Amino acid sequence: MAEEKQKPKKSIWKKIAIVLTVFVFVTVGWAYYDGNNVVEVSYTADQIGQKVKGHIVKAFDGNAVAIWGVIDAPAENVWKVIRDKENFEKFLPYVRKSVVKKVDENNYEQEQIFDFPFGTYQLKHKLWYEEKPNTYVSHWHQQQGILEVNRGSWTIHKAGNKTLMEYKIRFEAPWIPLWFGNAYMRQRLKVVVKKLREHVKNIEETNPEYFKK
């Protein structure tokens, strides 16, 4: 009986290439869907609990990333931290340094240095604040910088002795597709809630007089 010829085995590198190709297509497909999946939604502190929610929403004349989370501290304390923008690098991703200049009672100019994954850049923003019953809002709008669009807000809602934080940003860079940037930022910015929780708690434990100034 003639010996059967053995079929050549597929190269391990070919298998790896196939797996990587599938992974890339699935990841890009998910990011495309996630970055374009605009929803209309809002949350209460009870609905969120200790979770962090993030969605793509309509805001600032376009598609924006929105993040919600609960901070176990009074809204007045969290608001003081949010307005302390010269210490943003302690809890906000990519921020290396912030310098704030007061224009008038509720308007400021802010210059920030960001260490983005694609490079280090300096941005200049206009800031303004609103204080309403049970709600505080900090707005920003980029005036100078490499980004095509950079607008957003922090909204601090009173929730008993806790705080419901809502962070929104419309972010567009010339070299990143909008859907990809939104999908990436939606995941990355969830870290903001964790870092802000830790930062507020650390101040309460180590420097409680900070909130009385």
TrEMBL record:
Membrane-spanning parts: 12-33
UniProt xrefs under Pfam families: Polyketide_cyc (PF03364)
Entry keyword set: Membrane, Transmembrane, Transmembrane helix
Protein name: Coenzyme Q-binding protein COQ10 START domain-containing protein
Every Coenzyme Q-binding protein COQ10 START domain range: 71-173
Coiled-coil residues: none
Annotated family: Belongs to the ribosome association toxin RatA family.
